[in-house]
Amino acid sequence: MGLSNFRNPINDRYFEDYHDGSVFEFGPITLSEEDVIRFAKEFDPQAMHIDAEAAAVGPFKGLIASGWHTVSLMMRLFVDNYLTAVASLASPGVDEVRWHKPVRPGDDIFLRVTILETRLSRSKLDRGMVTSLLEGINQAGETVASLKAMNLVGLRRPLSEDNMRVPQ
Fold it and tell me: What is the number of structural domains in the chain?
């Protein structure tokens, strides 16, 4: 499947603008060694993330970004480009967080988002759920991280008991 584009900008995007099977790509964000170390010192201070000399003799044979850093970069691209700025209500969570390959200083990280499912809420007539597969992709086209995100998104025109549509 080819890449999709949203018809509406992020500040005019609602549940109705998300369609099952659509695929989007955003990015890149490039990681510097300083970025990798700064994040890890604050949030994941393991030697493989903060000490180049120790990392060189470790299992990855060099400094790597924390998986949490990688997912944070993916989230940044997700919020800046995909998630609606006007109708995002909340997220009940994410599933299946996976780190597939190490991310190293100098890597470019892109985000590929595939909409897996959209469905209207049966109990709250002003919203629906969008379930998406997020994949962090490096400059070589390799998947470095993935997760499934669930987002509650407001409808452009909320339903009422009188104009109830059949949920997707």
Answer: 1
CB-side neighbour CA atoms (13 Å) of 53: 0
Inter-CA distances, 129 with 7, 8, 17, 150, Å: 19, 19, 12, 7
- Is 163 inside a domain boundary? no
* CATH number of 17's domain: 3.10.129.10
Question: Residue 146 corresponds to which tokens in the numbers above?
Answer: 């993935």
Q: Output the pTM of the full model.
A: 0.91
d(CA 127, CA 108): 35
pLDDT in tens, 79-91: 999 999 999 999 9
Q: Is 23 exposed, middle or buried (0-12, 13-18, 19+ CB in 10 A)?
A: middle
